[in-house]
Amino acid sequence: MKPRPATGRRILNFLVNVAASLAASAGIIILLWIIIMLAYKGIPALNLDFFLHLPTPPMIPGGGLANAILGTLLLTVLATIFAVPIGLLAGICLGEFGQQSKLADLCRFAANVLTGMPSIIVGIFVYGLLVLPLGNFSGLAGAVALAIIMLPVVARTTEDMLRLVPDPLRESALAIGAPRWKVTLAIVFRAARAGIITGVLLGVARVSGETAPLLFTALNSPYMMSSLMHPMPNLTVTIFNYAMSPYEDWQRLAWGASLLITAAVLVLNILARFIFGERKS
Amino acid sequence: MPQAKDIVIPATARPRIRFNADTVFKGVTVVAAVVVPIIIAGIFWELLILSWPALKKFGWRFFVTEVWNPVTQQFGAASSIYGTVISTLIAMVLAVPMSIVIALFLVELAPRSVSKVVSNLIELLAAIPSIIYGMWGLFIFAPFMAKYVQPFLGQHLGFLPLFTGPPMGIGMLTAGVILAFMILPFITAICRDVFSLVPPVLKESGYGVGATTWEVTYKITLPYGIVGVLGGIFLGLGRALGETMAVTFVIGNTHKISLSLFAPGNSIASSLANEFAEATEPIYLSSLIALGLVLFLFTFLVQVISQIMLRRLYRGWSIKL
After folding, report:
1. A206 lies in which domain range?
2. How far off is chain A from B154, nearest CA to CA, in Å?
3. Number of structural domains, chain A?
């Protein structure tokens, strides 16, 4: 074999290293660029009116998004209530009972596929499932759509976290005569608690910024919500509508809402990481 | 002690009672798990039913016709499919090499503390909601593209038909670039995991015979973890295909196929988000949902491929899934 001169290879290596460092910095710059612009454009919009008042027609000052903030909170809480119990149970099935079974394999596969399913498709599904039969866009449909998006996230993290619990813990509980369900709920769950909370928080963070499925289900409304069976005001669809409008004060509100949503989602994410990190160390 | 109560129960009855409680518990969890595949089957079924009128009326021509005219009730998916494919392609061309070199940076170059911070920050990019990318894209990034990037490309690469036309900011190229930022963290995370799981002995033997960092990555790490990297790429591909809000803000929303990347276009997801509210005619709505069916089949296929690849990787390296 002919020895190759080292200079060319070193130069190539150097160039790749530079490219790698630049690419990593580019990723961080984009993140900071987005956050700084959100703060710059959004902070002026966040005053007391923003949190306390209903939207006003364009050009009339004093409008806020109190209804949309409440609506988004309500949708997220409802979705969490729907998705978390089913997600936890599904995670138990996959993690505790389904190491070898074909059915569990199928469910795990389906959960991974559903995690990657575009949220707008879930929106159409719930539109056909709840909106068309009931004849009305509704907050309930919106919450169901968000729950479907959240479900696989919770199920898969629960499974992963249950698997991290060492088997001797289960065996010692079984050995003193505890039934299997008690072992899972009282022993294994307690050991995996931090990880499971992390999964739920990540699920909540994922759905609270969702827009596309709500376009087909909860829609939006400029009024305070009255019932779950009517269109439900929410921040993300409001951002979409207001940003596309030509009115400056509406666009300003859209920036405020964007900042609020992003701050909430980032805080949830960082909190989730923190809780999980605590557990590991 | 609660266990004390158990002793009172006659010994013969005890195993049966326990067996029942455990069976019920297991049954409930299995039902909960089966909900997930049922949802996917339900999505497919619902899309098929709702898009049937359009598919029946237009037949296979629906997929190759560019016309999209709500006034004459003529609909074709060609421009949306084209837009989805092209914007995704731009995103992949930018995001894949970037992700691989970022993973290289995180695993091989950066000191541990720096690597940890950088990889956390990159992962936060994935946490930012799609609509925020849309806001930022429409008001900040599109003007930036129009002012600096597109004139530059037009000047130096204007001989290619891809980079002709007025630099408006809004259009296919901007959508593709923003998509690239959005899928970057997904591909990076998987590449990083794959790279760091390559046995050190392999890398060290590479370094031992005098290979540079790049040569070790290119000739040892990448081939060893290629299944995982491909799985990650397909995962990113699936995300890019179905990304809705960010694209809707910046792609321009016209049902036209143009060769220039500066021109506005549309994607399946952006058409759905943008036109759903105005689709009052049944055939219009049905055509939109037929677009959704196409998107479902695209992403389903991509997801399945990505899962098979990642699964093979995990099996091959005997890592628990």
Report:
1. 70-280
2. 23
3. 1
